[in-house]
Amino acid sequence: MDQLIVGGARARTFATARRGQLFDQLTDLFLAEGFAHLTLDDIAARLRCSKSTLYTLAGSKEQLVRASTVHFFRRVTDQVAAAVPEGASARERIVAYLTAVGVALAPGSDQFMADVAAFEPAREVYEQNTSIAATHVHELIVEGVEAGEFRGVDAAFAADLTATMMVRIQNRGVAESTGLGDGEAYRELAAILTAGIRV
After folding, report:
1. Per-residue pLDDT tens for 100-125?
2. Is the distance from CB of 60 to CB of 140 less than 8 angstroms?
3. How far apart are the C-alpha atoms of 185 and 98, rounded to whole Å?
4. Which end of the chain is less crowded, N or C, counting CB atoms within 10 A of the terminal residue's CB?
5. C-beta neighbour count of 154 within 10 angstroms
6. 198 CB neighbour count, 10 Å cutoff
């Protein structure tokens, strides 16, 4: 079904494009509805493809979920990077970065986030990306302190505070205690963090 173009580079290009399209569709489905309740038959029917096509993406539903979660966070990374202005102040970049993270995570339904939190392979992907994001914010805080833009706070403490809140957002603690979605929580974190350490 997928081999509409045959031979050499054109076939590989088509297969790669089709694979990317399927991952986009799969990821959008999971974001909207979660994944724990879906069988491979359900997924194939919703994507209008065969189960054998799904097996070209991953060898099992569990591997498919993990691969889709990785695909989602690659999209998030690209979206966030495009939203952070070059040459801006550290404060502006922190606000832009955390706000962009919030916007990029916003399509994830409560069910998707709950399913990620409950499924270790997907949760590990989220945790890894949260750690990378916290490290980046730490670097921006240090840069802002050195530039005199932020108060002479302990940058490591401010970064640890950020990382702690990012983990609480990721593991649904903030949603449960405040009712805020992940996207809203990241925007609030950006506002509170930068206001609190600004000179």
Report:
1. 988 888 888 889 988 998 999 999 99
2. no
3. 10
4. N
5. 12
6. 11
Helix or strand (DSSP H, E) at 11: helix 8-33
Top-tier CATH class for 61-197: mainly alpha
Q: Give the C-alpha separation, 193 to 90, whole Å.
A: 12
For tokens 């097996």, name the residue.
55
Exposed / middle / buried, residue 47 (Cβ in 10 Å: 0-12, 13-18, 19+):
middle
- Positive or negative, the CA dihedral 143, 124, 78, 178 is negative
The DSSP letter of residue 35 is S
Inter-residue contact 44 to 54 (CB < 8 Å):
yes
pTM across the whole model:
0.79
3-state secondary structure of 198: strand
170 versus 97: the higher-pLDDT residue is 97
Measure the CA dihedral 69/164/196/97, to 10°.
-20
Q: Work out the widest C-alpha separation in the chain, in whole angstroms.
A: 62
Kind plus residue range of the DSSP H or E element containing 92: helix 90-105
Mind listing the pLDDT tens digit for each residue in 5-39? 444 544 455 457 778 889 899 999 999 999 999 99
